């Protein structure tokens, strides 16, 4: 490993993850020809079409061409990021078609690198989406739910050292109101992040419900914490792709998640595109 590549190794404790993010943002600016982006989107399972609906993509960049990013590890995710001109607003979105999950064992720094790169690229708002299990029987597969708060059960944080970040309003209330202005039927819930990659047991789902959870999944909370540390406003939206274990009467499968996401993709993508334009 050369000295320059070692300086970009997020797994090295001596590496400054924010410096890697600044280097990545500089590459994004060079490849896109856009000095500053305004809003970032992390598109989880079921949300992939949103990037096509918010405006014109100019251009697309392979993740592996940007320092600190890797290939998509999950079926249904896209290996590229794109710069999108948000229709009729004069603003730019940096759209991620995939994320690094905590269960990939690449470290929390890698999990939140996209968030920090977006902040370094100028984004002051981030929209974080996911596909998840629902704990409320009235939320059928294909139901979008705003994240009001989260419970982080990973036992990890992206924040290093004695840096005490305030998380009372980690999911910005003003942005949730904007989303409800576009779709008044949007419900809200508390998202519970488990480590994964296995699905939760029925007992774990009942525990999540007992401690105040409404949604369960394997992403989002670590990214939201990193976004707040960077001073970004955060809008979190889950797509219920399945009923959680013990609530569902059938075994869970990733294929079910993909199919539910595909069925709801255009409807949810159009709603989210309208929200992004209104932010």
* CATH superfamily annotation: Nucleoside phosphorylase domain
What is the helix fraction of residues, given as a range? 25-40%
- Shape type: globular
- Per CATH, which architecture? 3-Layer(aba) Sandwich
Distance between the termini: 43 Å
Strand percentage, roughly? 15-25%
Query: How many domains?
Result: 1
Report strand order across the widest sheet: 5-8-7-6-9
CATH topology: Rossmann fold
Q: What sequence of helices (H) and strands (E) makes up the elements?
A: HHEHEEEHHEEHEHEHEH
Organism: Ornithinibacter aureus
InterPro entries: Nucleoside_phosphorylase_d, Nucleoside_phosphorylase_sf, PUNP, Purine_phosphorylase
Catalytic activity: a purine 2'-deoxy-D-ribonucleoside + phosphate = a purine nucleobase + 2-deoxy-alpha-D-ribose 1-phosphate
EC number: 2.4.2.1
Core attributes:
single chain; 279 residues; alpha/beta; Rossmann fold; five-stranded mixed beta barrel; 9 helices; 9 strands; 32% helix; globular
Protein architecture, described:
- This protein is α/β, with parallel strands linked by helices and 279 residues long.
- The chain has one domain (3-278): Nucleoside phosphorylase domain (Rossmann fold), CATH 3.40.50.
- The protein is 32% helix and 23% strand.
- It is built from nine helices and nine strands.
- It has helices spanning 3-6, 17-32, 50-53, 108-111, 113-120, 173-182, 202-210, 221-229, 254-278; strands at 39-42, 55-62, 80-86, 92-96, 125-134, 143-152, 187-193, 215-217, 233-243.
- A five-stranded mixed β-barrel has the order 5-8-7-6-9, surrounded by four helices.
- Helix 2 (17-32) crosses helix 5 (113-120) and helix 5 packs parallel to helix 8.
- It is globular.
- The mean pLDDT is 89.
- Keywords: Glycosyltransferase, Transferase.
């Amino acid at each position: 490993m050369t000295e320059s590549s070692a300086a970009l190794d997020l797994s090295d404790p001596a590496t400054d993850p924010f410096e890697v993010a600044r280097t990545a943002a500089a590459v994004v600016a060079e490849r896109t020809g856009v000095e500053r982006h305004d809003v970032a989107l992390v598109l989880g399972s079921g949300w992939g079409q949103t990037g096509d609906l918010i405006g014109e993509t100019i251009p697309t960049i392979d993740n592996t061409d940007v320092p600190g990013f890797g290939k998509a590890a999950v079926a249904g995710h896209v290996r590229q990021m794109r710069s999108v001109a948000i229709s009729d607003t004069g603003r730019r979105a940096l759209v991620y078609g995939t994320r690094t999950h905590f269960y990939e064992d690449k470290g929390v720094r890698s999990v939140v690198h996209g968030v920090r790169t977006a902040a370094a690229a100028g984004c002051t708002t981030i929209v974080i989406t996911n596909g998840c299990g629902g704990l409320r029987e009235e939320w059928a597969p294909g139901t979008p739910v705003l994240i009001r708060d989260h419970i982080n059960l990973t036992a990890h944080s992206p924040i290093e050292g004695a840096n005490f970040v305030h998380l009372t309003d980690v999911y910005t209330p003003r942005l949730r109101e904007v989303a409800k202005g576009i779709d008044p039927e949007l419900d809200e819930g508390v998202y519970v992040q488990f480590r994964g990659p296995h699905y939760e047991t029925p007992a774990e789902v009942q525990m999540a419900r007992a401690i105040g959870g409404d949604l369960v999944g394997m992403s989002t909370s670590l990214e939201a914490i990193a976004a707040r540390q960077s001073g970004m406003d955060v809008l979190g939206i889950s797509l219920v792709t399945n009923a959680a274990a013990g609530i569902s009467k059938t075994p869970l499968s990733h294929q079910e998640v993909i199919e539910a996401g595909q069925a709801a993709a255009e409807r949810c993508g159009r709603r989210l595109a309208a929200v992004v334009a209104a932010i």
